[in-house]
Amino acid sequence: MKTSEREFKVIGTRPVRHDGIDKVTGRALYGADHSLPGMLHGRVLRSPHAHARILSIDTSRAQAMPGVHAVITGDDLPSVPDRTEALGEGTTNANDLSNNLLAKGKVLYDGHALAAVAATSAHLAEEALDKIEVQYEVLPPVMDVRAAVAEGAPLLHETLRTAGVPESKPSNIAKVIEFARGDLDEGFAAASVIVEREFTTAMVHQGYIEPHNALAKVDADGQITLWCSTQGSFDIRSLCAKVLQIPLSRLKVIPAEIGGGFGGKTTVYLEPLAIRMSQISGRPVHMVMSRNEVLRATGPTSGSVIRLKMGANAHGKIVAADALLDYEAGAFPGSPVLMGAVVIFAPYALENFRIVGRDIVVNRPRTAAYRAPGGTNAAFASETLLDELAEKLAIDPIEIRRRNATCEGVQAPWGPRMQKVGYEELLDAAQSHPHYSAELPPPNGPLVYGRGFAGGGWGNAGLQSSAILSVNNDGTATLVTGSPDIGGSRTSCAMIAAEELGLEAADVRPSVADTDTIGYTDVTGGSRVTMATGLAVFEAAQDVKRQLRERAARMWECPEEGIVFEDGDAIRPNGERLSLAAIAGKAGRTGGPVIGRATVNANRANGPSFAGFLVDVEVDTETGKVGILRGTVFQDAGRAIHPAYVEGQMQGGSVQGIGWGLGEEYIYSNEGKLENASLLDYRIPTALDVPLIEAVIIECPNPAHPLGIRGVGEASIVPPPAAIANAVAAATGKRLPVLPLSPPRVHAALQTGD
Amino acid sequence: MKTSEREFKVIGTRPVRHDGIDKVTGRALYGADHSLPGMLHGRVLRSPHAHARILSIDTSRAQAMPGVHAVITGDDLPSVPDRTEALGEGTTNANDLSNNLLAKGKVLYDGHALAAVAATSAHLAEEALDKIEVQYEVLPPVMDVRAAVAEGAPLLHETLRTAGVPESKPSNIAKVIEFARGDLDEGFAAASVIVEREFTTAMVHQGYIEPHNALAKVDADGQITLWCSTQGSFDIRSLCAKVLQIPLSRLKVIPAEIGGGFGGKTTVYLEPLAIRMSQISGRPVHMVMSRNEVLRATGPTSGSVIRLKMGANAHGKIVAADALLDYEAGAFPGSPVLMGAVVIFAPYALENFRIVGRDIVVNRPRTAAYRAPGGTNAAFASETLLDELAEKLAIDPIEIRRRNATCEGVQAPWGPRMQKVGYEELLDAAQSHPHYSAELPPPNGPLVYGRGFAGGGWGNAGLQSSAILSVNNDGTATLVTGSPDIGGSRTSCAMIAAEELGLEAADVRPSVADTDTIGYTDVTGGSRVTMATGLAVFEAAQDVKRQLRERAARMWECPEEGIVFEDGDAIRPNGERLSLAAIAGKAGRTGGPVIGRATVNANRANGPSFAGFLVDVEVDTETGKVGILRGTVFQDAGRAIHPAYVEGQMQGGSVQGIGWGLGEEYIYSNEGKLENASLLDYRIPTALDVPLIEAVIIECPNPAHPLGIRGVGEASIVPPPAAIANAVAAATGKRLPVLPLSPPRVHAALQTGD
Fold it and tell me: What residues 142-171 of chain A have any CB closer than 8 A to a CB of chain B?
């Protein structure tokens, strides 16, 4: 049966989420809630300089304080390979990771960790930090990509050479990548209109509410148990094992409930320090960051400078596109510029293009993943420039997107041919939505109004997952996976199991297991969990159903052949039925408990998701303040397992995109000191800043997945900044190629601008 | 390949135990070590009377105390069926269980719980207990089975009638069971010698060091998480669900590390109270018993009176045996008298016998399982009387056992025919052991010396188990079961997995999961875990090997047929090899992680184990003190997976048997008050009381099990009291049919005796 024809009973409904009550009543146990007898409290000493050589660190006075049980510096971490390899989420250079944990030789950003202390109380640990004496030789910092690539720029890493460029000399450019096809000159020659701009976007943080935390317990034989808030317990295990040079099997990672991650909780900061100090002290060590530490020293996503030139013919068909993406990596290589290069033209069928991306180190924190990493910056450039093309050609901005829209069979800029995707359906839905034709308020004194639209896509990830589905003897079931739940995957996975077994969603009790308890499972990221872990759950349910048919045959004392399992019953060819509960109740006598299991590499089942954002803005031309009047997000979910969660993802991504578009940015002083390291000064949108975003789900089933699922967590953050900029242009007649569109920037642009 | 011919690499070795370091360094987390934010502390009000009607309970003053968040009595527990049914370990009457948790109508023993309080501190909770006012009508107590069956005895339960006796009137006899075969009169007529005695054994406690504990967290939607120290998390789940009338799927039980159980941690005392008070207060509730509470109010095993008559012919062949076993049930029906009836003649092939067992309620705590429940009392009677027969017939005491020994094909007194067992081999080993022929010291003043031997068997249990075995990508593995580890089963199960996969024991990391995380698994009891959960592990490993062959075929791009997995490698017909680590390292590319799983009903694979105990005693005829000079325990382990653990079980069971034989007993006042409710007065043997017990493992593989395993946890506790009594008889010439053989009893007997 084709999934599109199948009727679902549980999938597509909106049951109460399994973890909901726990969370709203404050009972859920987050990382910082764990404690152990005899536990020490760890704190980190951080650099006040953006760029400096460490001449000496004297920890002797801290070591001597009563109640201080461990003091560590970079010298207390083992040497690790200076080689980028498959490790954790994607590829990682373990030496960089180690140097980011505790600086060796140089500090590379304001907040860079230098030393850590574990003491019997947090206050004592902080006092001990004050007693650590560090001598620095302060160096000039490199704060953005323009400065980093300038001739004679100070070098962060004296030995770093540019990957992808043969015989390069030491540089701040860590890597150059390129996608190209067709003939650019020919393309631009055929264009009726050409537009070109340089875009600048700011470094922004994921803004999860829960700070990073870790509790490590190292036993006398070296066995390690680590509690932490993470998106990927197996990734944390492999990263800790690598930087501490211990075997994987020594370390058990227990993922706590997680108070937001958005990509930022896929790597390690405190975890190896807590382990190391527990190894030294012989006592459990607990560490929790302050907000200041989270902003200064965990991984935000890259600010960028993007130079983009696009040409279109009179019909609005894009005939050439040339992009240079310069992304801030932070202090160590690893920006998401590759994904920016994938996303920049992902929604469109192009024949002549070149996309060059550069990964550039600067004296800012090492970047980490953030929801559709690299995509929002890129789409800000392409989707505003496309809007400008539409304007110049007098074509409806959604119509110009439809004329270029990618679809089944199109070769994507990065190589593969697309399977069925829902971008055209999404554009139709946006164009026919009442929001698109609603009237805008007329100008009112200094207030002007505009509407903008932008699209964007995200490829999503497949990767590996495991699932165990056990049937209780009362006919309910328990489901174990290794995917920390950051966006409702416990419920969506339980619903998949319930659908297959003919149960109610509440009858399947999901849990997220530690790394000793479940098979290898990749990170909760890439919007992969409902798709990939869901696939493992789907297959585990098939395994259960196979066993239930076998047990039913044993109960009926008949051959298994011809028995089917449907709607929660095993059915004999003669029509007799045995319910799952009846079979489960006798499982002890027909061979023991019934447990299904499956493991998958879900790359084969992955499919991309596209989103669009439609927004009305009010611009105060006197102050430059941009307000959001109305927002509607459209997204192809493939199959929405729990539509309320899908809507939540779409709304959440949109709001984060609005924050990125309007207010969020890392503000550094000339000396490289982060000047807004608090949530008072780093402005993420609050409920007062945004209206309720309407979410419109489009369902074009993913043909590669047995349930048609596409990951839905990320695509919705890609369009909003571009949509807002397009709306501001519509309101003011000015194109502002800069993020965030904060009042001072907008105000200044309105005075000058083009 | 027959298991007896197979060569093992891991099985039979003595690797460091996986949980060892954690335990010896004090890091292991036991039930009482858990704490949660906002946790309340619960305490229990207990009856000072052995038998009384509850006229009223006034909790109002306690309720009114600031800081008291919940006060409950029997009225706060729901009504449950007054029916004995399959529930928890074996069968349970939920109504009795509920009344034992919190008395309704009557209190039935000193220490019987009446009410419980949860408050912000333990001291406050204790103060609140003092403010609860209870009015009693004190009733005469019934303290032993003789008094309980006497005409006109006070009745504990006015409506209790004798199961197995049609039209019985209300009585303290809860049940009568009987096994019989052949013709007793004919048998005794053929006897050359007949001996008959009445034996009395005392109520004894398992003496686990860790008291009972429970931490319950009930969420706003009624979902319950329970941490406790238990031998069977699924049993605790079903018992709590039954007495609280909640669905199984509401309750997740997380088994803590356990500080001894020996059968006593298979039922509930605090758990439902903690849950109920958490339901009421909305806060987590933590409860831990004092030692006084453990001794007064948890389940010891039955004291008993056993009347036994045996006859043998001149060759020492037992020709008739007639037994009446009266077992104390404690306050509610449920003594292990049935198992006593099974064990009493288990080691022997008998043709004419009658075994009648009676389950009798008395005003003592409700009994619970204790290592080979009911067996030690029974064997004390049969093995001392057989010794007396040997003495009278001048046959060597081991020789008379060999002449009667059970073996393959013999029909057991309780019905089935025996498969191959190792009792004859065990007797041979004992007889040829240097200990049996070593010289005893000559009498020395008041000190006299004697040697005794006794045998005994235990049938063991099969039941259901589940196992999940996951392969890590570095070639190590993690193993998850649902069997709390009370005797080394984590290590033995890990060794089975390691053996099958060609790994080292340390490369398999075992864990014990909660009830949401692993499939249904029956209690850790009946010596079943290494046999039954081990069988699930064995089968899960076969599942892993099947997948590894499939993955190897994919890597070689060849058909799977002909590929074998041996010694940790997949081997192609052409001799090419791929190690487990090599296959695991590529698992992501050949279909995802490898997880094996199996569930079993292991009744089919179970086999009994027999033990023998050889002991030398020194009797001080002036004081009556009996000392143990030397002890050797012999046991058929089938296959000793980790011989050091098997020896530990044999030694532990022997020492508990010595305690039972020499010092342990519940001493009640005439009013039914327990007078020795502390470990100072209730004398379990310490290291100073016993020599190192030598353990001799016999291995007669269990033909029903693929690895030949027999459960080894229990049989060793059966023989010691009988062996000691035989040794005392050899030293003093007096037969003392009473336990314990404590100095006052022995002293008195030496003055009178027969």
Answer: none
- Mutation target to probe the B interface, by most B beta carbons within 10 A, among A29, A516, A590 is A516
Q: In whole angstroms, what is the distance from residue A486 CA to residue A259 CA?
A: 8
Structural domain of B548: 20-28+462-604
Chain A neighbours among B 17-46 (CB < 8 Å)?
20-22, 24-25, 27, 29, 33, 35-37
Which of A649, A631, A609, A622 lies closest to A721, judged by CA? A631
pLDDT (tens digit, 9 = 90+) per residue, B519-559? 899 999 999 999 999 999 999 999 999 999 999 999 999 99
Same domain, A667 and A591: no
Minimal CA–CA distance to A637: which of A621, A649, A623?
Answer: A649
CATH code for the domain of B42: 3.90.1170.50
Residue B705 corresponds to which tokens in the numbers above? 């099990």
In this complex, how many residue pairs, one in chain A and one in chain B, have their CB atoms less than 8 Å apart? 178
What is the per-residue pLDDT for A2? Answer: 47
- Report the residue from A219, A474, A480 with minimal CB separation from B27: A219
Q: Is any Cβ of chain B less than 8 angstroms from the Cβ of A478?
A: yes
pLDDT confidence tier of residue B754, bands split at 50, 70 and 90: low
User: Is there a contact between A293 and A165 (Cβ–Cβ < 8 Å)?
Assistant: no
A729 touches chain B (CB under 8 A): no
Cβ within 8 Å, pair B476-A37: no
The position carrying tokens 């409702």 is: A488
Nearest CA in chain B to A251: B509
Q: Is the peptide bond before B740 cis (omega within 30 degrees of 0)?
A: yes
Does residue B509 form part of some domain?
yes
Q: Quote the ipTM score.
A: 0.70
Contact B599 A588 (CB under 8 A): no
Average pLDDT score over chain A: 95
Residues B472 and B456 in one domain: no
Among A17-26, A291-300, A653-662, the minimum mean pLDDT is found in: A17-26
Nearest to A597 among B219, B465, B595 (CB): B595
**CATH code assigned at A327:** 3.30.365.10
State the Cα torsion B145-B150-B156-B157 to the nearest 10°.
Answer: 110
Q: Is A293 left (phi over 0), alpha (psi -120 to 50) or beta?
A: alpha
Q: Are strands A626-636 and B91-93 parallel, antiparallel or unpaired?
A: unpaired
Partners of B597 on chain A (C-beta within 8 Å) are 468, 595, 597
- Residues of chain B neighbouring A518 (CB-CB closer than 8 A): 468, 470, 480
Residue A405 sits in the same domain as residue A337: yes
Same domain, yes or no: A633 and A521: no
A168 part of a folded domain: no
Give yes or no: residues B360 and B276 share one domain: no
Measure in Å the smallest separation between the Cα of B548 and chain A Cα atoms.
Answer: 13
In a domain, A24, yes or no: yes
Region A418-444 average pLDDT: 97
Same domain, A308 and A446: yes
- Asked if pLDDT for residue B86 goes beyond 90, the answer is no
Pair of tokens at residue A57: 């660190």
Q: Which residues of A301-322 are buried (b: 16+ CB within 10 A; e: fewer)?
A: bbbbbbebbbbbeeebbbbbbb
Mean pLDDT, rounded, for A97-113? 98
Place of tokens 């990672």: A253
Residue A310 lies in a domain: yes
Same domain, A690 and A588: no
- B-contacting residues of A 490-529, CB under 8 Å? 507, 509, 511, 513-521
Q: Are A228 and A80 found together in one domain?
A: yes
Last residue of a domain, one of B572, B604, B636: B604
In chain A, DSSP finds a helix count (H) and a strand count (E) of 20, 28
Q: How far out from the chain centre does Cα A684 lie?
A: 17
Q: For residue A357, give both structure tokens.
A: 């991306």
Where a domain ends, among A547, A582, A604?
A: A604
Domain count for chain B = 3
Residue of chain B minimizing CA distance to A600: B592
